[in-house]
């Protein structure tokens, strides 16, 4: 059984550098509990998204839950969205640098280049297939969380040390 009080894995934990495995059985009770835990953890930690590897679970699963909060006061509001076995189908040529932090990299923010617009595909928690166009901040969240499923942290995408700052948030 998945512990509802899982700690957020921080940089240095090897699971954050591993490829996550595809979810085979969406109806699995433990997986559904993990989804609930991800949703709760993201909200409680003032996150705008969180991936299963951040809770030391090696699955291709994350939630995007953009909302204004102390860490991202200008974040747009969107309904929390569960994304299982997500894929990036296409992207704009344009990239934009934006500030990112990470619950797994506390105390640091960085200016990270990301595609401005993307087309994505994923399964929801009920197994329904979705394709969606995402732009701006929500596209940034998706790309950040997808990186977690591939063992990549936002600090790996920083182009220069000047784009990295200490942050109390």
Distance between the termini: 31 Å
Order of helices and strands: HEEEEEEEHE
Low-confidence stretches: none
Give me the CATH superfamily. Answer: Peptide deformylase
Helix content: 10-25%
Oligomer: single chain
**Beta-strand share of residues:** 25-35%
Shape designation:
globular
Number of domains: 1
Describe this structure in words.
The protein has 169 residues and is an alpha+beta fold. The protein has a single domain (14-166), classed as Peptide Deformylase (Alpha-Beta Complex). The protein has two helices and eight strands; from the N terminus they run αβββββββαβ. The protein has helices at 29-44, 136-149; strands at 49-51, 61-64, 81-91, 95-102, 105-115, 117-123, 129-135, 164-166. β4 (95-102) and β5 form a beta hairpin.
Please give a quick description of this structure:
The protein is an alpha+beta fold. The chain has helices at residues 29-44, 136-149; strands at residues 49-51, 61-64, 81-91, 95-102, 105-115, 117-123, 129-135, 164-166. The termini are far apart.
Topology overview:
Elements: H1 29-44, E1 49-51, E2 61-64, E3 81-91, E4 95-102, E5 105-115, E6 117-123, E7 129-135, H2 136-149, E8 164-166
Antiparallel strand pairs: 1-2, 2-3, 3-6, 4-5, 5-8, 6-7
């Amino acid at each position: 059984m998945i512990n509802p009080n899982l700690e957020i894995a921080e940089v240095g934990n090897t699971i954050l550098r591993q490829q996550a495995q595809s979810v085979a059985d969406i109806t699995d009770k433990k997986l559904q509990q993990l989804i609930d835990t991800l949703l709760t953890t993201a909200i409680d930690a003032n996150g705008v998204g969180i991936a299963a590897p951040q809770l030391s679970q090696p699955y291709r699963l994350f939630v995007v839950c953009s909302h204004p909060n102390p860490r991202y006061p200008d974040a747009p509001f969107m309904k929390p969205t569960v994304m299982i076995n997500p894929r990036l189908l296409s992207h704009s040529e344009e990239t934009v640098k934006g500030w990112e932090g990470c619950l797994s990299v506390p105390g640091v923010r960085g200016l990270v280049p990301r595609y401005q617009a993307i087309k994505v595909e994923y399964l929801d928690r009920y197994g329904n297939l979705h394709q969606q166009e995402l732009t701006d901040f929500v596209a940034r969240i998706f790309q950040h969380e997808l990186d977690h499923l591939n063992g990549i942290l936002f600090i790996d995408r920083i182009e220069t040390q000047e784009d990295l700052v200490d942050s109390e948030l």
